[in-house]
Amino acid sequence: MLCCVKFANSHALHLIPDHSHQMAYKRKTVPLSYYKISEMNTIRKIGVLTSGGDAPGMNAAIRAVVRAGVYEKYEITGICRGYEGLINNEFTPLYRHSVSNIIQRGGTILKTARSERFMTEEGRELAHQNLIKAGVDALIVIGGDGTFRGAMALGNTYQYPVVGVPGTIDNDLYGTDFTIGYDTAINTVVEVVDKLRDTAASHDRLFFVEVMGRDAGFIALRSGIACGAEEILVPETETSIDDLIAKLENDYRENKTSGIIIVAEGDDQGGAFDVAKKVKEKFSFYDTRVSIIGHMQRGGSPTCMDRVLASTLGYEAVMALKKGERGVMVGQINKVIACTPFEKATKHHLEINKNMLKMARILSL
Ligand code: ATP
């Protein structure tokens, strides 16, 4: 049997399920005074979804949510295809064995999607109704800043408890030192660029390598340092083609016969093809090639660091809900678990360390 509670400051009906596993529910408004606050806050069933771009380590985070939830005696429901699945009622119960043998797998067993409909009030209303019907009392969302903006809209409108886990290869979220998937993505870039370096050196070629990062240069910066790139172009700084050519001319004079230029896809001069073309028009000493690493950066088995981070943050998300945290992203700052309100995590932009960019230039002389 399920009963519903009308919150004092909203018209939202929150249904508190018993453990009968029944889908039927009774819509009945009960005066607030009938319930103790602690009863109102009781969470019995937690939903988990992955949303936005997939990131290696999302499976490890799902596993941690399920296992920690089962340990704490919560029922766990998986929602397929992110917010789109919430609207389409794609709910599936998850048990401890449902997440066996997935910690090492890239992608997400729950699948992911970008949902236009969830951006509308009607879409979110439908999603909320489906959560209530399924008796899901709280949600853990794994994704990036867009996912948290959606979580904030749902949570604020319906006073619905949501906790976020940062899962994105971009590493651009305020409130955590690293996001799940970033370490695997940069290691993929390093592996690919090391291979390109071999062929570049053998043929005396200059490679322009495009990596992901529409708005942020975290992937470009860290992988560029690790590969000893001759130059790293990121969206956060203005790129001067003349300065780049001056640097390449200097390299040429210093008898560098090949090189690697890492270009974040969101660089103000365009992607790797555009930059290569602009350089070639003015400076043709090097034989140039372009390589776009693309979606390879999203796939693959997560690194040890991503598996541990995902396990930790998935576990801590369940504990945060248990402690009464709502509307926050669970992150890790200086090895300490930190809960940052969605508003802050999405409004503030994490900045790349410009000193590291300077260091990379000096080390590639
Ligand atoms: P990534 O960093 O990998 O791109 P992300 O979570 O930022 O991941 P988005 O596509 O930006 O990916 O967001 C995921 C989904 O969140 C969107 O498809 C949309 O359904 C929802 N969403 C984003 N912004 C909002 C918003 N302002 N209001 C409601 N829902 C939103």
Give structural notes.
With 365 residues, the chain is α/β, with parallel strands linked by helices. The protein folds into 2 domains: 19-180 and 302-347, 3-Layer(aba) Sandwich (Rossmann fold), CATH 3.40.50.450; 183-298, Rossmann fold, CATH 3.40.50.460. Helices cover 39% and strands 19% of the residues. It contains 12 helices and 13 strands. The chain has helices at residues 37-40, 58-71, 82-87, 121-133, 145-158, 182-203, 218-227, 241-253, 272-282, 304-323, 342-347, 354-363; strands at 2-6, 13-17, 45-50, 75-79, 91-94, 138-143, 162-166, 205-211, 231-233, 259-264, 287-292, 328-333, 336-341. The protein has a 7-stranded mixed sheet, with helices on both faces. α8 (241-253) links the parallel β9 and β10 (259-264). The protein is elongated. The chain starts with a strand and ends with a helix. The model is unreliable at 1-40 (pLDDT under 50). The site of adenosine-5'-triphosphate has 18 residues, from α5. Adenosine-5'-triphosphate binds at residues 51-53, 83, 114-115, 118-119, 143-147, 149-150, 153, 168, 170.
